[in-house]
Write a structure and sequence with these properties.
Elements: H1 2-15, E1 19-24, H2 30-39, E2 52-54, E3 60-65, H3 70-76, E4 81-85, H4 86-92, E5 97-101, E6 107-114, E7 129-132, H5 135-144, E8 150-153, E9 169-174, H6 178-182, E10 185-194, E11 196-200, H7 202-206, H8 208-228, E12 230-238, H9 242-248, E13 256-259, E14 265-273, H10 277-287, E15 290-296
Length: 302
Amino acid sequence: MGEKLRLRSNSNEEAQPRLRLAIQKEGRLTEQTLSLLHSVGLEFESYKQRLFSTCYNFELDILYSRDDDIPEYIASGTADLGVVGQNLIFEEGVDLAELLPIGFGHCSLVVAVPKESGITEVKQLAGKKIATSYPKSAQKFLSSQGIAADIITLSGSVELAPHLGVAQGIVEITATGSSLILNDLVAIETILNSEAVIAANRDSLAHPYKARNIERLMVRIKSALLARQSKYIVMNAPKVALARILEIVPGLKSPTIVPLADPDWVAVHTVINEDVFWDVIEQLREAGAGGILVVPIEKLLN
């Protein structure tokens, strides 16, 4: 009987496979990715030596990978999901589904040249050498512009290439532009603006059981991201100013209005976006709101 039960359990596991999520093992996306996953209640072990973790409270396993391997892992089905920069998806040119931008890992893939080069347009690089760690992206872009150039693939220190005489220009990722400035380079064209996204294998999205768990996970992540981008505010306001205040803060659907002991005043509860927070607060004060209380939001389901 015990053997039959064990075999039946194995059969169920095969019929209902766990999700596998690929994330960067070590790099600029790692800490924020781990923080996001833990913030949505996922419990798993993570430290630099690990290559694989199992979530204790969700049907999910985590694969720690080199960032440039993740697009291929997703496209091939080695992983059902992955956290990866759009720049790497563009570079690898694989077929996968981008489900959700997650608000970090912002960068741009640019064409840059030495300041003193006199080059101001990409077409001036025709016939010249261009160094890059993104050769496929560079070639795709140059081809789209009808420009023929000699692409030199480097794995690091791409910004030094023009000063070493290796190339006359570069195609490289920049987040703040500081590395370009330090190397006396100037960007003359932006090929791609990128951020980290959650991407999925298309077959996994079509698999009934996996698709259900992907949706469950995405609901959690969207809730956490929305909460990070929002503030809950409570304010007191005279009724005569209420119409103006409602124009300023429409809220998710409609603000909550609560009567106060003073019949001429009400309390207004609403949620506003972090990006416009200070502008909105100034407008509320000008409209007559006072006693404004700001509360961080842990989770927000819309």
